[in-house]
Amino acid sequence: MKRFCMLAVLALLFSSAVLSAQPWESLFNGKNLKGWKQVTGTARFQARDGMIIGTATDSKVNSFLATTRDYDDFILEFDFLTEGLNSGVQLRSHVNKEKGRVFGYQFEIDPSERAWTGGIYDEVRRLWLYRMTENPAGKAAYHTGWNSARIEVIGKHIRTWVNGIPCTNLIDDVDASGFIALQVHTASPEMQGSKVCWKNIRILTQDVARYATPTDAPAVNCIANTLTPEEIADGWKLLFDGKTTKGWQSARRLGTFPDHGWSVEDGVLSVNKGDGGESRNGGDIITDRQYRNFILKVDFKLTPGANSGIKYFVDPFMNQGAGSSIGCEFQVLDDERHPDAKLGVRGNRTMGSLYDLIPAPKGEWESYTIDGWQRAMVIVNGNHVEHWLNGHKLLEYERNNQMWNALVAYSKYRDWPNFGNAEQGYILLQDHGDHVSYRNIKIKELP
User: Fold this and answer.
1) The pairing of beta strand 262-265 with beta strand 268-271
2) Quick count: other Cβ atoms within 10 Å of Cβ 254?
3) What average pLDDT does this structure show over 403-430?
4) Do 23-221 and 229-445 fold alike per CATH?
5) Residues 391, 134: contact at Cβ < 8 Å?
6) I want to staple 43 with a disulfide (CB 3.0 to 4.6 A). Which of 184, 400, 415, 443 is the partner?
7) What does the mean pLDDT of the chain come to?
8) Which of 403, 386, 357 is nearest to 446 (CA)?
């Protein structure tokens, strides 16, 4: 026992020695803003009492105080406090001098009830990359008063901790280097004069991988049409390789892929513009095989006024006449411009709804990215099904029961025997005559 205790003490001392030997560099000397420069906005930044203090003004754009040098791989630590003002810290970022705007990765500081502090936002460009809905446990990390942050930016990985609690585990490859910057967000009149403070800002840039910290935050892979080693180990598979139509077939001519109406370009699978009718151009496409229990993730992008859908439990032999193949549908629709959004019952044909059956709640999803990409997720586990959009659960339901059958009886599917109750079925992307793009189509089968 004495030997064991001695070994434990030596291990602890060794670990402490390694940590203390880490080659940290201070990014703030505690006295002035040497090494920093304001690149956008009119908020006031000052060094006082060992802190960098940012004060909100009536600035028309977000204000950023940036390092005067760029960084590629690093570990960054700092303490922060906000007087209720949304803020953040930029990572590997840049400035568009013509537009006077900073763009790039941002560590979010969010004191609101949403509680997304520690998430990753892509300022100006793609918006949210890692919402804290991906990691509910991390939402509890932030508290009123001073907080501590640790950010590891190593290769394609961005990982964050708030007060020692894992928050973000992001994989992305858009920016390899750039400056670090402190943000003071634009403020409403009542929030002008509010302050955000930072102190104890230090960075490690040497032998960074050696000091990387394990994390149990769920990983989000933003690299299109790829799987990380962790995803592969977890059972995920790609349903679209980004280059070919392998794995897909026509819903009407099984074993072949439509010879027109669909295209693959720049890592995107698109159904092309037709006459706006159901399955009248290239027609629907389905997976080569059927699925029973699964988590399906699909990124999609609409053109103005477009209509499409992601269907599951599809039986391609159920409807051999005009129109689309029959199955449960995650509605993909431009609610503002397409008339279908106003049809059905209580909005059950709007974006994310279980088409013609269960409406998705209004206002429960935000634009996923500024360039129009959204992320749908469908979870099927036995008779339990969920629809998610951009990290928000929209709806859930149970099938194969009296309530489900009654719901179907009052829908357009009432004439299709046993609709939605099959043990398994194909997954389908719908041709509704509008141009809609898909990518990052991946599936994890459940037991």
Assistant:
1) antiparallel
2) 12
3) 96
4) yes
5) yes
6) 184
7) 93
8) 386
Cβ–Cβ under 8 Å, residues 333 and 351:
yes
Say which amino acid occupies 196. V
Give the list of residues 6+ apart from residue 303 with CB closer than 8 angstroms, or none: 273, 334, 434, 435, 436
Distance, C-alpha 41 to centroid of its chain: 28
The mean per-residue pLDDT over the stretch 76-85 comes to 97
Residue 1 DSSP SS3: coil
Residue 284: other Cβ atoms inside 10 A = 28
**Coil vs helix vs strand at 51:** strand
Contact of 156 with 177, CB cutoff 8 Å:
no
User: Could you read off the pLDDT of 187-245 as tens digits, one per residue?
Assistant: 999 999 999 999 999 999 999 999 999 999 999 999 999 999 989 999 999 999 999 99
CA distance 226 to 441: 10
Q: Is domain 229-445 given the CATH code 2.60.120.560 in the classification?
A: yes
Q: How far apart are CA 207 and CA 22, in angstroms?
A: 9
Residue 369 has pLDDT above 80, yes or no: no
Is there a contact between 280 and 286 (Cβ–Cβ < 8 Å)? no
At residue 387, the 3 state secondary structure works out as strand
Q: Residue 368 — very low, low, confident or very high, per pLDDT cuts 50/70/90?
A: low
- Tell me what pLDDT residue 98 has: 87
CA distance 374 to 390: 6
Domain ranges (residues) in the chain: 23-221, 229-445
Mean pLDDT, residues 411-433 taken together: 96
In order, the DSSP letters of 280-341 are -SS--EEESS-BSSEEEEEEEEEPTT-EEEEEEEEETTT--SSSPPEEEEEEEE-TTT-GGG
Amino acid making up residue 25: E
Q: What is the separation of C-alpha 312 from the centre of its chain, rounded to a whole number of angstroms?
A: 22
pTM: 0.87
- On whether the CB atoms of residues 167 and 117 are closer than 8 A, the answer is yes
With beta carbons less than 8 A apart as the criterion, state whether 428 and 256 touch.
no
CATH of region 23-221, choose from 2.60.120.560, 3.40.50.2000, 2.60.40.60, 1.10.760.10: 2.60.120.560
Name the one residue in this structure whose structure tokens are 């002035």: 32
Largest CA distance in the chain: 81
The pLDDT, as a whole number, for residue 366 is 63
Closest to 444 (Cα-Cα) out of 381, 350, 384, 391: 381
Tell me the per-residue pLDDT of 232-286, one tens digit each, with 9 for 90 and over.
999 999 999 999 999 999 999 999 999 999 999 999 999 999 887 888 899 999 9
- 402, containing H or E segment: helix 402-409
